[in-house]
Amino acid sequence: MTLLALEEITVRFGDRAVVDAVDLDVAEHEVVCVLGPSGSGKSTLLRVIAGLQAPDGGRVRLGGADQAAVPAHRRGVGLMFQDHQLFPHRDVGGNVAFGLRIRGARRAAYEPRVAELLELVGLPGAQRRAVASLSGGEQQRVALARALAPEPRLLMLDEPLGQLDRGLRERLAVELRALFSRLGTTVLAVTHDQAEAFALADRVVVMRDGRIAQAGSPLEVWQRPASEFVARFLGFDNVVPATVAGTTATTPWGPVPVPAGSPQGAHQVLVRPAGVLLGDPATGAGSGLDCVVAARTFRGTHVTLTLEPRTGPVLEAECDLAGAPAAGDRVTARFAPAEVVVLPAP
Ligand SMILES: Nc1ncnc2c1ncn2[C@@H]1O[C@H](COP(=O)(O)OP(=O)(O)OP(=O)(O)O)[C@@H](O)[C@H]1O
Fold first, then answer.
1. From CA 234, how far away is CA 225, in angstroms rounded?
2. What pLDDT, on the 0 to 100 scale, is given for residue 284?
3. Mean per-residue pLDDT pooled into runs of 10, the chain (346 residues)
4. What is the ipTM of this complex?
5. Nearest residue CA, atom 9 of ligand 1?
6. Fewer Cβ neighbours under 10 Å: the N or C end of the chain?
7. How far apart are CA 214 and CA 207, in angstroms?
8. In what order do the strands lie in the sheet with 303-309?
């Protein structure tokens, strides 16, 4: 069942639409992540849903009911901001209890609930700790417990892990996903970090200049970015103009095989780095595009190579650690059609 429905939501600042006729549904128990570069309108969208910003056009429905006349505090949505904004003069328990106390709950009623929430976020027994004594990751967990305390029907997270270092961010994203699925929480999160969005979400919505550029499961968006913008935003830079005929695209890198059924004619192609297959020019002469390895970057589980091809723009390739060529080596590149995506012309 649909919990949140946005219908043509528009917000203008001056004559600029920072949110431009956005339609979006979030189903009950679904975790949706809105992903987009800074300034694409993500936070403004959350503020509209929370009732902190009146839209210039369109409608917000929660559980089917139009929210136009419903003030923020009666919408039943929880909002957690990026800088988590804990109250520094309250202890952890006081922070988590905040939303329960302003609703008039008595200590005897909320204390067990606070204990339960702290357990849930992995900080059992932390009630009396001072906020200043917590690490960034622990503060994030307290902020989350505080947002969950009043049991919002929709939990909205603005850059929930933005302040944390990468390792912690990835770990917490996985933990959050498990927690939300256990609680059945409906979540709408916004982030500019694709790894965070992909780790957290059932569905990813990519925004560009106030509009939805693509929506789909993390796998769909990753495998089939809908445009050059989405592809580059996900970090794929092997994008060139192409003319597709049958299962071959003519490109500045020469012929590139494309999956059967690809759209024909003038387009662009994306070759994911894993689809650039390297050969040794000494043994495979004549097969593939001659390239020189311009740079080699160690990525932990694999190596990323920047190739300078004989023709066409630089090409990024991925290969195993073992036997990876070194900077300055000559290689040939062929392309695996399964890793090639035909994109619309720019
Ligand atoms: N109150 C305001 N008055 C004028 N312009 C605003 C206001 N609030 C936001 N904007 C502008 O609207 C655009 C979208 O802002 P928004 O904060 O929604 O983007 P965002 O995608 O959340 O970005 P970030 O990731 O940096 O938070 C930005 O260009 C911003 O400068």
1. 8
2. 61
3. 97 95 96 94 94 96 96 90 79 89 72 90 92 88 89 90 76 86 92 89 96 96 94 94 97 96 96 93 76 93 95 95 92 96 92
4. 0.95
5. 44
6. N
7. 7
8. 276-279, 330-335, 289-298, 303-309, 315-319
CB 34 within 8 Å of CB 42: yes
Q: Where are the alpha helices (DSSP H) in the chain?
A: 42-50, 92-101, 107-120, 136-148, 166-183, 194-200, 218-223, 228-233
Ligand 1 atom with the shortest distance to the CA of 53: 1
Contact 54, 47 (CB under 8 A): no
Establish whether residue 47 lines the binding site of ligand 1, counting it when its CB lies within 6 angstroms of any ligand atom: no
Q: Is 42 in the pocket of ligand 1 (CB under 6 A)?
A: yes
Parallel, antiparallel or unpaired: strands 2-13 and 16-27 = antiparallel
Ligand 1 in contact with 18 (CB < 6 A)? yes
Distance CA 291, CA 275 (A): 15
Distance, CA 143 to ligand 1 centroid (Å)? 23
Structure tokens at 330: 């000559």
CA 168 – ligand 1 centroid, Å: 27
State how far the Cα of 140 lies from the Cα of 191, in Å rounded to an integer. 15
